[in-house]
Amino acid sequence: MQTSVIGFPRIGTLRELKFASEKYFRKEIDSDELEKTAETLRQTHWNTQKAAGIDYISSNDFSFYDLVLDTAVLLGIVPKRYQELKLSDLDTYFAMARGYQGECGDVKALAMKKWFNTNYHYIVPEVEDDMEIKLSGNKPLQEYKEAKALGIETKPVVIGAYTMLKLCRYTGKKKACDFLDEICKAYQELIAQCEKEQIAWIQFDEPALVQDMEKEDVELFHKIYEQILPHAKKCQILLQTYFGDVRDIYPDLIKMPFAGIGLDFIEGKETFQLIEKYGFPEDKLLFAGLVNGKNIWKNHYEKTLQILDALREKKIQVVLSTSCSLQHVPYTLKHEQKLSQEYLSYFAFAEEKLIELQELSALAENNEYRKDAVYLKNQKLFAGDRKCENEDVKRRMALVTEQDYIRLPQRKERQQLQKKVLKLPELPTTTIGSFPQTKEVKANRSAFRKGEKTEQEYVEFNKKKIAECITWQEEIGLDVLVHGEYERNDMVEYFGEALGGFLFTEKAWVQSYGTRCVKPPIIWGDVYRKKPITVAWSVYAQSLTEKVVKGMLTGPVTILNWSFPREDISIKESISQIALAIRDEVLDLEANGIKMIQIDEAALREKLPLRKSDWYKEYLDFAIPAFRLTHSGVKPETQIHTHMCYSEFTDIIPAIDDMDADVITFEASRSDLQILDSLREHNFETEVGPGVYDIHSPRVPSVEEIVNALHIMLTKVDREKLWVNPDCGLKTRGVAETDASLRNMVKAAKQIRNQG
Ligand code: GLN
Ligand code: ZN
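^ thats the input. predicted complex w/ zinc ion below
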């Protein structure tokens, strides 16, 4: 059976591309040297796939920053303000990705957004009314030729026209459909070039097909491919989808003249049923996405081979494929020295997934595969005891009742009580938790990790920082203080390390955006709290001041969403376990005198399922109760806060209110505050702190600016329900700008209070 890879990670096993690009940004190397690194990486990736016997290897899956941006540039979608900088092509590209400030001008970067339901972010292309979309580059062909010169036949991958039209932002009056003919012409030309080069296959990625499609969307898709497909003669077109099933368009899709269709069997809940119901044409290839491109667990061969058997019984010609690009998993297990073989034997990163494809393809061709040693070894792994269960956790989960998900008394009553006890002024001022992570703060952590500092030295340093931070906040005049989060590198890793059931890798980086990578922890087993995590820091901070210090935790949904989840139990079960662990910490903080506790759910909104119909039953129906489980045990006067990084929750406001927090802070300074109207319409009960300034930039907001923002907010939010805070944590900001901004914020709040 033939095998295919949708895309390979591009940043390098040891993040070579990241380091080279950053050197280039700092002008330490020139573009030739950067190109050389890129070329070496591409060669390595192709050779690795070739050596693993992959039949359909991708080219043009390499990118200096982002594939959507690459495709935008390929189609000439470069806003004027970037062209006017008159930079080289490469620097114009980077200006769009990262912004530009220098001799040639000053422009901000294009916006970034989450790539469907992943933790990867793409650059949002901007289409201007007077722009002409046309084929303006030859990256796909160049990379194809580069591979060909190495003796490797590849399929160039390009994001499809439908997905591109859906992802672009239209800055003028025109809409997607107004660019239909132009974009189709560009793809026709691209195909013509591939024909000329005698390229056998092109892959058009159309992940937008797994989202809800309206009638107009289906029509748009038809119009696009009716124009494009007739231009493919010898060159075969693979329509590749991923991140879900294509239920809204499947019956149409199989009638269209694609030579191959790629479907996701991992996240596509209905993929198999669609094939059962509507069949799959014998003259097309089905690229069956059965090797998970998003998670790091080994493939269960028995299950996969059962599906392959069933597909072949239907006389379908199958190519075995990954479920999505492998860019969402780390490169290789080779560099993991610290995890035992026992653990490692359960994982497959990108390179190991290539081996899985190879093994599965051989097994699929063997009628007697059940006797094959490779198969048996895999069977044994899955039949064995993974030692991931914890009886105490199970027992405790079993004792959780409906009552544990309900905090009493009702919020309105609590809010009155809290006002009396906490005695905060109107429009209380606070921050989101972290304070600037200076060089010394990072050095302290890293020295401790490397064993260059004793625990005592490490703790002493942090205590000194906390004390400084408390004095600083008192001087600024903030009402609710925080300890500053100097002990944390990352809001998930820090908690994961203190919880039983988590594993950590050394080099398992996954691209988050551009040159930025993250190293998500792995949820290996049942999760529980080993010991108090933040209590000592918070209690110390509180001991230094009369003002209220807010405890600071990460919530269960965010911890799960930013980790590699288990596949042997449901997400719902995992989240509930994490919720109980965080609940222990919440109750411990309270028992130790902490009166206010913030439980961050930065990633709650971003993991909403792609289809609206799945929002509640597949996610919110358990994610929201899990959050309630963390705090339902506290006293009525203990105030629970939560924080979310986006304000784009207009469509799930009742669910957010259902978290039953007393206060929520969120990003609003960059959006148009429309969210506040929606909150009002829904009689939102939770008190709110819509960020009054943007912490993502070093700019210091003036008092007047903040006063104005607050005035607008007060027209939409009841005075007794409004909090005053920045829109996110301050850890990436400098000390001077933080000081100035917070002082202005406090002045602004006071000014409004005095106006009565
Ligand atoms: N408490 C965290 C901080 O202030 C929240 C971070 C976040 O929302 N991403 O850094
Ligand atoms: Zn935030």
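The chain has a mean pLDDT of 96.
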